[in-house]
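Bumping my old thread because nobody answered last time. Still need a sequence for this structure:
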């Protein structure tokens, strides 16, 4: 049975893991292993431990950086660590960060955190069970959370057609 790891933080203001687990349980029969850490910079080691020690096939790393410049720097460092952990384990870690300044009010921020998390949980399932679905969506401007951007008119035909 496939195992999905969920790494989340106590710093987040929304229980993003709950949204991920609810979506995953509704869509697939997998084992879910949750590992909660204090802050966003702790996510890389949590994700790596889920992959190496808990035998997870993929990890969803959930975080909610604050809006201060220091928080943005910490998010960047955490993101770099998650990339290194992916390369060290040769497994996907889906980074799902929702920055506090992405929404005008707390209600919208909570909605965004839950929606982005749920949509990335579906992406994790596609990576595990149906990667061809992601290939079919390539170039369509998919966005997790807010509305999709959509494809650009003309696509590859302009450059490649010459």
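Sorry it took so long. Here it is:
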């Amino acid at each position: 049975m496939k195992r999905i790891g969920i790494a989340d933080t106590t710093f987040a203001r929304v229980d993003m893991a709950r949204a991920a687990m609810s979506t995953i349980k509704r869509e697939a029969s997998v084992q879910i292993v949750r590992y909660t850490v204090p802050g966003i910079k702790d996510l890389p080691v949590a994700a790596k431990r889920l992959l190496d020690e808990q035998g997870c096939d993929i990890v969803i790393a959930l975080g909610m950086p604050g809006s201060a410049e220091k928080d943005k720097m910490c998010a960047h460092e955490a993101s770099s660590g998650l990339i290194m952990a992916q390369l060290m384990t040769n497994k996907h870690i889906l980074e799902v960060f929702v920055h506090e300044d992405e929404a005008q009010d707390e209600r919208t921020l909570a909605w965004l955190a839950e929606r982005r998390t749920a949509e990335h949980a579906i992406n994790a399932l596609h990576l595990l069970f149906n990667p061809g679905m992601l290939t079919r969506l390539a170039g369509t401007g998919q966005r997790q959370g807010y509305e999709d951007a959509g494809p650009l008119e003309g696509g590859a035909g302009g450059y490649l057609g010459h």
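The CA atoms of residues 59 and 93 lie 5 Å apart. Let me know if any region looks off to you.
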